[in-house]
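JOB MANIFEST
job_type = single_chain_structure
chain_count = 1
residues = 72
[input]
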Amino acid sequence: MTPQVMRQVWSVVENAHSQTLLQMDDNSLVHWLVKQTSTQALLDGHETDFLSEYIKSRLHLIRDIAYERQYS
């Protein structure tokens, strides 16, 4: 995954409504984040799979960020 794609993922997380990130189940959230990122960066199948695994490994952090934003 390129640094540009990684920045794009975190930009999507930062720009998403906290409620959106908190209401989805894990699989839906991964799918949504991959979809949002891939609309802004062209990804091949391998990159999409890697991105999905990366997001899955960061779900707790993503939800923590959304929770803190919602209640701060």
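[summary]
Residues 1 and 50 are 7 Å apart (CA to CA).
The chain has a mean pLDDT of 93.
exit_status = 0
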